[in-house]
Design a protein that fits this description.
This protein is an alpha/beta fold. It is built from 16 helices and 15 strands. The strands form two sheets. It has an eight-stranded parallel sheet with strand order 6-7-8-9-10-11-12-13. Bound molecules: N-(iminomethyl)-L-glutamic acid (NIG) and fe (iii) ion. Fe (iii) ion binds next to loops.
């Protein structure tokens, strides 16, 4: 395929979107073979039937690097409770929150989980997503954690999207282990991680380090096992309070630390040293009506790469729109449209430990998004509705 007359945001440079104004991209199989201005198309590609995108903006396919898109039920009733005065933490402590989704996910069949997740995934694909990370963590028992991860893998084979999974057994303490987080970690979480790894279901290991979930020492025991299994690490850190999650993530050279509203400048420095990505999740901040934004300036000062993701989940971020996440990142956190676009492409790639996508350059995967737009700032500027013209996945429309 030869895309012609494209406004290319290649993102190979972080100065000016890596712009090529009247550009062309040649795809060979599932890889990008050549990128450059129309006037320089090499002879070998000139015979190819062109796909003229008529000046439209072309970006790398979008990468949603943090989602909990596989789950049973929904939490609209808790949304209503919160608007009647209850807090997210109060609802969680009363057995709602993550635990109410755990109950619904345990009760759902694999087929139901798959079909409800696919309808949400389709909404993502309609907004240019070509790579999606999916977490477990609403099972909290062996059977259901494995069921969620199998569903995540099935999404990768049934839908035209590249799926990466994260094991999130340390997401919450299930009701049958109430008051016994350590026993849950040792008797359920760690053996389930090993079983899931044996089945080839795990690409990374995540945890929720928070007052309503697990402390840093408990998460560290799970991370030690991840290390033995050679699995990379991610962490939900400093979302609602600062209890040392970011420092823990940095000690384990995590791929990413995510949320980070309560992270400090020292935390940012630690992430810079460990080469971890800060994954910014404005959907959860917005939904929970949080007031303290993540320290974006400190990430900039210390040179921590920032990614942006939907955090798509039934409780704190019931959204599928990465475009809306970009808009929120800009409007709520003062990220620039350039940072927002880098956050859903190049830096999201890094948050998944990948290097073969997220930019438009020779050798990269041929995953592209063609937009009804002519400047990349439009993607962040409209409130969640920039039209996708088409998506190219593994070199095909
Ligand atoms: O990323 N913070 C923890 N986990 C999810 C929320 C899960 C839920 O409320 O169901 C998050 O926001
Ligand atoms: Fe999350």
């Amino acid at each position: 395929m030869l895309l012609t007359h494209a406004t290319l945001a290649t993102l190979v440079s972080d100065q000016d979107y890596g712009f090529i104004r009247d550009g062309a991209v040649a795809l060979k199989g599932d890889k990008i073979a050549w990128v450059g201005p129309m006037s320089e198309i090499p002879k070998t590609f000139r015979g190819t039937e062109p796909f003229d995108v008529q000046g439209r903006l072309v970006t790398p396919g979008f990468i949603d690097c943090h989602s909990h898109i596989v789950y049973g039920g929904n939490r609209a009733a808790e949304f209503e409770q919160r608007l009647n005065g209850a807090s997210y933490q109060e609802i969680a402590q009363a057995g709602g929150g993550i635990i109410s989704t755990v109950k619904a996910t345990r009760a759902a069949s694999e087929e139901d989980l798959l079909s409800t997740a696919i309808s949400r995934v389709e909404a993502m694909l309609a907004q240019g997503v070509t790579t999606l990370e999916i977490k477990s963590g609403y099972g909290l028992d062996r059977e259901t954690e494995l069921k969620m991860l199998r569903v995540a893998r099935a999404i990768g084979s049934k839908c035209r999207v590249s799926v990466y999974t994260s094991f999130l057994g340390a997401h919450a303490i299930p009701p049958e282990y109430e008051g016994q987080p350590d026993t849950y970690i040792d008797d359920v979480c760690i053996p389930t991680l090993r079983a899931a790894h044996d089945e080839g279901l795990v690409d990374a290991v995540d945890g929720f380090c928070e007052g309503i979930a697990f402390d840093a020492e408990q998460i560290a025991r799970v991370f030690d096992v991840a290390r033995q299994l050679n699995l990379p690490i991610k962490l939900h850190a400093e979302q609602l309070s600062n209890i040392g999650g970011t420092q823990l993530a940095a000690r384990y050279k995590a791929l990413s630390a995510d949320h980070l509203e309560y992270a400090t400048s020292d935390d940012a420095a630690a992430l810079a040293r460990s080469g971890s990505v800060a994954v910014i999740l404005p959907g959860a901040f917005y939904t929970l009506r949080e007031e303290r934004p993540p320290p974006i300036d400190a990430f900039r000062t210390h040179g921590v790469p920032m990614a942006l993701a939907t955090d798509s989940n039934p409780g704190s971020s019931p959204m599928t729109s990465l475009l809306l996440a970009m808009n929120m990142g800009c409007t709520l956190f003062r990220m620039t449209p350039m940072e927002a676009l880098m956050g859903v492409t190049r830096n999201a790639t890094r948050a998944l430990g990948l290097s073969d996508r997220g930019t438009i350059q020779p050798g990269a995967r041929a995953d592209l998004a063609v937009w009804q737009a002519d400047h990349p700032a439009e993607l962040s500027y409209r409130i969640g509705d920039t039209a996708l013209h088409c998506r190219i996945f593994e070199g095909a429309l």
